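Quiz preparation item.
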């Protein structure tokens, strides 16, 4: 694991002091604009001579537990954001907000952050955002499972023929296994797929109908087929087993729904349910897409320095830290033998959300990532090295300070 001895690292229990940085780097002060002499206490001549005014790094911010708790903004987010924008409100570094939420549109999440600062929906990445790249499914009929404005989400992502579980259920009384005329014509065998956006509200209905669709290759009125493996494609977003709401204990997340679906499928068929793709943190695809958005922002702003390092700031060991570290491993392995512009991806854990070293009722997911208890998804291996953060800081404001110092960054 990288960075275990870095001076900026705090003790996991939070007993070590916050990094020795001022609350503000005075980024907009006249001194820094005309060439900062002492950007932070203790800066050496070498530090000053290597200061950067253009970013060669980008931020991936988790939202819940980092910027907000429920609907309440975390105070440190406001001060952090003041350091990230110039006097015109433009970002000084590329920033993407990466959330595993999936039951709403990007714009709704952007609006949720509007009390902190104006951000564009193009900076927000939901767990389903990478589906935009899966154009080969966009023309096909897809059964979508989840809650919220499912059809709006599907259409916004590019799907032309989404059908919800509810719509399928309404058609179901009309379905007749032997009367072909009564099949709903939106279901086309061989050109059908299932997209799992998030946890639905009536699990038994969704589980039953998804299994029906899988075992009939898209004709849920027909009898189950013997030869339908591999089954039609299943694309799934957000693997979080649990999430923290107002209740004392964690609540079922979409990952729990997926456990049910996987086990029912296996019990009935004796075979593994296979995913065409899994997205949302900690999947590599999500980080690749986030990196793509970061680079697009840098290009748009004509920042010519290549982006070398991504800093993923989050509050959850299993999603934010595991995902960032997994992506960093991928970048390291892809650097050798290819000309990939691969950057590093560094994990920064904050203590304002799920991971809280001070709370009496432990919300820490560390207890759920052991060899015997692993809350990660079936297709992700337990690996203690992947849940070790590169840095632990009290909050997002400290995270921004830390990264600016690590990068010797003083914006113009
Ligand atoms: Mg979070």
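Solution:
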């Amino acid at each position: 694991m990288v960075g275990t001895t870095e001076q900026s690292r705090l003790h996991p229990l939070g007993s070590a002091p916050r990094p020795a940085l001022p609350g503000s780097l005075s980024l907009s002060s006249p001194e820094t604009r005309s060439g900062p002499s002492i950007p932070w206490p203790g800066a050496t001549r070498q530090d000053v001579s290597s200061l950067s005014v253009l970013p060669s790094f980008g931020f991936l911010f988790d939202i819940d537990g980092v910027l907000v708790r429920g609907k309440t903004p975390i105070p440190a987010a406001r001060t952090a954001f003041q350091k990230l924008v110039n006097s015109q409100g433009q970002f000084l570094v590329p920033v993407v907000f990466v959330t595993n939420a999936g039951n709403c549109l990007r714009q709704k999440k952007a609006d949720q952050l509007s009390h902190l600062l104006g951000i564009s929906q193009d900076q927000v990445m939901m767990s389903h955002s990478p589906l935009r790249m899966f154009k080969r499914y966009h023309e096909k009929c897809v059964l979508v499972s989840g809650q919220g404005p499912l059809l709006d989400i599907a259409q916004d992502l590019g799907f032309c023929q989404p059908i919800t579980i509810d719509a399928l259920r309404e058609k179901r009384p009309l379905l007749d296994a032997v009367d072909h005329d009564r099949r709903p014509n939106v279901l086309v065998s061989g050109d059908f797929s299932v997209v799992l956006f998030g946890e639905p509200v009536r699990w038994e209905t969704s589980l039953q109908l998804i299994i029906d669709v899988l075992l009939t290759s898209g004709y849920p009125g027909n009898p189950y087929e013997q030869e339908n493996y591999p089954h039609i494609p299943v694309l799934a977003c957000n693997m979080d087993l649990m999430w923290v709401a107002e209740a004392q204990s964690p609540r079922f997340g979409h990952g729990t729904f997926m456990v049910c679906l996987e086990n029912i499928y296996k019990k009935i068929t004796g075979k593994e349910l296979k995913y065409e793709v899994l997205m949302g943190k900690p999947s590599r695809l999500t980080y690749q897409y986030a990196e793509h958005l970061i680079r697009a922002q840098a290009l748009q702003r004509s920042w010519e320095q290549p982006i070398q390092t991504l800093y993923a700031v989050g509050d959850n060991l299993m999603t934010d830290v595991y995902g960032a570290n997994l992506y960093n491993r991928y970048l390291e392995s892809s650097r050798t033998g290819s000309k990939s512009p691969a950057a590093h991806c560094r994990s920064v854990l904050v203590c304002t959300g799920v991971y809280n070293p001070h709370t009496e009722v432990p919300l820490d997911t560390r207890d759920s990532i052991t060899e015997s208890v692993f809350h990660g998804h079936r297709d992700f291996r337990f690996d203690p090295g992947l849940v070790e953060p590169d840095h632990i800081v009290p909050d997002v404001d400290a995270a921004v300070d830390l990264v600016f110092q690590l990068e010797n960054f003083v914006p113009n």
